[in-house]
Structures are given as C-alpha cells and as structure tokens.
C-alpha cells in the first residue's frame, strides 16, 4: 500500500513544492492550509504528518498538542525556516519526530528523514497489531480458563454431593442395624438446623453445621460398637472404645477438602466447656459456636433415646439435665434457645 503523507502549510507555493517533491519520491500526498484542517482530515491511514510551525489560527505546536490529546501517534515533522533553539526544545517536548528546513535544498536528506518517519509509523502499527493480537489471545485464554473453571467447579460440586450421599448411605445403613441408634443422625441434624434458625450465622456456616451434624458419628462406621447392644453397664474398656469415634470420624473425613471445617466439629462434638470432654480436653475458648450447637442436640437425643445399658430420659428430664450442665458442659445461651424456642413444648412440660 502506498505511503500516505499529510502536509499543512498556509503558504500555497511552499505546500505545492513539498507536495511535488513527495510525489516524485512515490508518496501519496494530501495538502491542507491550516492546523484545523489537519485535525479534521487526519485518520489512521496516514503514515506521516508534516506541519509548518507558523500558521494562523492554530500554529504547528498547537496542532501537535491537539493531536497528542487525541492520542494520534503518527510521526510529525516540523517544516520551518526558523532555526531557533526555543522552537526545537518546544517541538521535542511535544513529541515531534524531526525537522525539515525550508527551502528544501538537500532532497536526499529530505527523503531519508521521510523514510525514517515512515519506518517509525510502521513500527507503531506493528506494535499496535501485536498488542491487539495479545489482548485477543489473553481474552481468549481468559474465557477458556473461565469455562474450564466452571467445568471444574461443577465436577467438584458433583463429586462433593456424590461423596456426601455415599457417606450418608453408609451411615444410615450402620444406624439401621441398631434399633438404639436408628434415626439419631437425622434427629441431630434437624435439631441443629432448628437452633441455627435462632442464631445469627451465615449461609456458609449453616452448610458447615448441616454437614458436621450429618457425619458427627461417622467414626462409628469403623469401630466395633456391638457392646452397646449388650445388657448391663459398659466396662471401662468399652467406654474407651466408644470414646474413640470422634477422633476416628475426623480422620475419615480429613482427606476431603470440602470437609476441612466439619472435621474439627466432628472431632470436638464430645468436648465440654470445662475442658473435661474428649478426645482433646479443650475448653470453652476453643469450642466454636457450631460445635456447641451439635454438642447440645447430640446429648439431648442420646439422653432421650433408649439404650440397652441404661434407662433413657424423658424429655423433661433431658431438659433438666441440659440446664443443670450449662456453663460446665453446655453453652447456656444455646440451651435457652433449644429449650425455649426449638422445643417449647418441653419447657411447658417441665414447668
């Protein structure tokens, strides 16, 4: 494509002479007589702009300043007969590419300066093309990554839900084998979520609470707890075996990244505020809100459920036991919520 040059000079004779020289060297030339004409004529098709400095209305410097404001990055050469240092400094500060003196005596030097300006323009175009190509590639890769992330997130969610369903099925099967524990997990989960309705916790924490409640006893899957079906009291050794299930349960779910927070609740659901619980013997400051909720409802359901080795409590007795153990084993505020709001009929019976 032929190189295109825009020249502005209010002197018709000078402008025509320069146009003829440029045409002779094979350039396509458009001439205008003012700086304002340059601003209305210029577009991205031009390769070089030649400006006279001394023009009415907008001089060469003012024209270049306007071009800069419009982010037009076409090389500008000033055409001038003045050799002032002040002019040169001002032109450089404005970003002028070079000077052409008039009258034009050295045509070879003139043509060399034009060629260099054209090369500069070619470099600028290539740089713009590279940036646009790079931007398109970045946008494309960003879209691809976003699509892959969506696929991975969906797969992760599917895997998470499938894992939860499998674990739930295994645990339900385990509970159904024992008439004394059947339905325990469902009741603990339901009561935990009812307490959560009266506590200011986030949607994320509600999900954590639900999952932790669903699997708080999963450790019993790998522990032989046939002893709980026998008649009579459990031996110290049998109690020690039962007390291992929180720690074992935490280890079962620990490899699952989405169960990271839940594993701690599973491990600590038999801890006490006074530090006399198990397996770690942690105290009040180390037992979080979600764990405290499950501790209450798990204990309540265990107390009111029939066991072969002990007599089950009535609802009234279980509520009394919860209240009696507040501050030492259970969180007092949560016990109040449980007894007054979650199961108000128990409070009425107790009173």
CATH class of the largest domain: Mainly Alpha
Order of helices and strands: EHEHEHEHEHHHHHHHHHH
Please mark out the parts with pLDDT under 50 across 5 or more consecutive residues, or reply none.
346-351
How much strand content do the residues show?
5-15%
- Let me know the largest β-sheet: 5 strands, parallel
Secondary structure: helix percent:
55-70%
Main sheet strand line-up: 2-1-3-4-5
- Output the CATH topology of the largest domain: Hypothetical protein af1432
- The CA-CA distance between the termini, in Å, is 98 Å
Structure summary, number of beta strands: 5
| Mean model confidence by pLDDT | 85
What does this structure look like?
The chain has helices spanning 12-24, 35-41, 60-69, 85-94, 107-176, 184-196, 203-214, 236-242, 245-253, 260-268, 289-304, 315-324, 332-342, 344-350, and strands at residues 4-8, 28-32, 48-52, 76-80, 98-101. The protein has 14 helices and 5 strands. It is rod-shaped and about 120 Å long. The chain has 2 domains: 4-127, Rossmann fold (3-Layer(aba) Sandwich); 177-350, Hypothetical protein af1432 (Orthogonal Bundle), CATH 1.10.3210.10. With 351 residues, it is of the alpha/beta class. Strands 2-1-3-4-5 form a 5-stranded parallel sheet, sandwiched between helices.
């Amino acid at each position: 494509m032929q190189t295109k040059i825009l020249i502005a000079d209010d002197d018709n004779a000078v402008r025509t002479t320069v146009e003829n020289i440029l045409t002779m060297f094979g350039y396509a030339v458009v001439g205008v007589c003012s700086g304002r004409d340059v601003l209305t004529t210029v577009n991205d098709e031009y390769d070089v702009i030649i400006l006279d400095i001394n023009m009415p209305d907008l001089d060469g410097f003012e024209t270049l300043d306007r071009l800069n404001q419009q982010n037009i990055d076409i090389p500008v050469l000033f055409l001038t007969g003045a050799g002032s240092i002040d002019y040169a400094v001002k032109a450089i500060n404005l970003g002028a590419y070079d000077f052409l003196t008039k009258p034009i005596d050295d045509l070879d030097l003139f043509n060399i300066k034009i060629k260099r300006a054209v090369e500069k323009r070619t470099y600028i175009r290539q740089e713009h093309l590279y940036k646009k190509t790079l931007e398109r590639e970045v946008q494309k890769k960003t879209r691809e990554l976003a699509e892959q992330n969506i696929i991975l997130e969906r797969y992760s969610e599917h895997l998470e839900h499938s894992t939860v369903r499998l674990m739930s099925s295994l645990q339900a099967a385990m509970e159904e084998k024992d008439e004394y524990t059947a339905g325990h997990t469902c009741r603990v989960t339901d009561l935990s979520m009812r307490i959560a309705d009266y506590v200011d916790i986030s949607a994320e924490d509600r999900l954590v609470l639900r999952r932790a409640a669903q699997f708080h006893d999963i450790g019993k899957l790998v522990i032989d707890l046939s002893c709980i079906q026998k008649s009579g009291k459990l031996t110290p050794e049998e109690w020690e075996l039962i007390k291992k299930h929180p720690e074992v349960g935490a280890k079962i779910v620990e490899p699952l990244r989405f169960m990271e927070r839940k594993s701690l609740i599973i491990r600590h659901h038999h801890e006490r505020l006074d530090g006399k619980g198990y397996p770690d013997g942690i105290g009040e400051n180390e037992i979080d809100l979600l764990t405290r909720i499950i501790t209450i409802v798990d204990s309540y359901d265990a107390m009111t459920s029939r066991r072969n080795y002990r007599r089950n409590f009535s609802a009234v007795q279980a509520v009394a036991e919860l209240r009696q153990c507040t501050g030492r084993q259970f969180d007092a505020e949560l016990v109040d919520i449980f007894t007054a709001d979650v199961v108000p009929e128990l409070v009425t019976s107790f009173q």
